[in-house]
Design goal:
The chain is α+β, with helices and mostly antiparallel strands. The chain has one domain: Umud Fragment, subunit A (Ribbon), CATH 2.10.109.10. Helix content is about 20%, strand content about 30%. The strands form two sheets. Strands 1, 2, 3, 4, 9, 10, 11 and 12 form an eight-stranded antiparallel β-sheet that branches. It has a four-stranded antiparallel β-sheet with strand order 7-6-5-8, with no helix packed on it. Strand 3 and strand 4 form a beta hairpin. The protein is elongated. The N and C termini lie far apart (about 55 Å). Its EC number is 3.4.21.89. One of its GO terms (molecular function) is signal peptidase activity. It is a single-pass type II membrane protein. It is found in: Cell membrane; Membrane. This is Signal peptidase I.
């Protein structure tokens, strides 16, 4: 009888440890997210399920063109691509990205006549966006969706504070036929 109680106790203890580890991993390291809407087409499709690396920006700085998840509101997270970093001036003119006045190749802006939708970027200056900044403030980033004509991003929301960033995402794990690493 004592052996049976000990076995049950061991099983309960193992399950509690497993649940605690799963909770810690999910809270602090990795979390799943589902892409909603067309704003990241063609890179990400509506319904793609991804893993968010929640700790990466604790050990490295964000990079231009990283795909990030951030709190757009208390109820909703958005997935967008980093375009501008702290201290930079960002401008789009004639579908060309300029950082501090110098052209930067943006492989996510395309205007293909045969495409089902246009991915061009309307002209804008950082100063024209909410906040009216001349340079992106420290601790903030500018984000855009890849489907620029159908994306709610920094052009409407303004720059995004780093403390609103949930993490970086680049792994699609579902649906099965779309499993891939993005941009690595």
């Amino acid at each position: 009888m004592a052996k049976q109680k000990s076995e049950w106790f061991d099983w309960i203890k193992a399950l509690l440890i497993a649940f605690a580890l799963a909770f810690i991993i999910r809270m602090f390291f990795f979390a799943p997210i589902v892409v909603e809407g067309p704003s990241m087409l063609p890179t990400l499709e509506d319904g793609d399920q991804m893993i968010v690396n929640k700790f990466i920006y604790q050990i490295t700085e964000p990079k231009r063109f990283d795909i990030v998840v951030f709190h757009a509101s208390a109820q909703q997270d958005y997935i967008k691509r980093i375009i501008g970093l702290p201290g930079e001036h960002v401008e789009y003119e004639n579908n060309s990205l300029y950082i501090d006045g110098a052209p930067v190749e943006d492989p996510f802006t395309r205007t293909d006549q045969n495409a089902l939708y246009e991915q061009g970027t309307n002209d804008f200056l950082l100063e024209d966006l909410p906040g009216g900044y001349e340079r992106i403030p420290e601790g903030q980033i500018l984000v855009l969706g890849d489907n620029r004509m159908n994306s709610t991003d920094s052009r409407m929301l303004g720059v995004v504070p780093m403390d609103e960033i949930v993490g970086k995402t680049n792994l699609i794990y579902w649906p099965f036929d779309r499993i891939q690493l993005i941009g690595e």
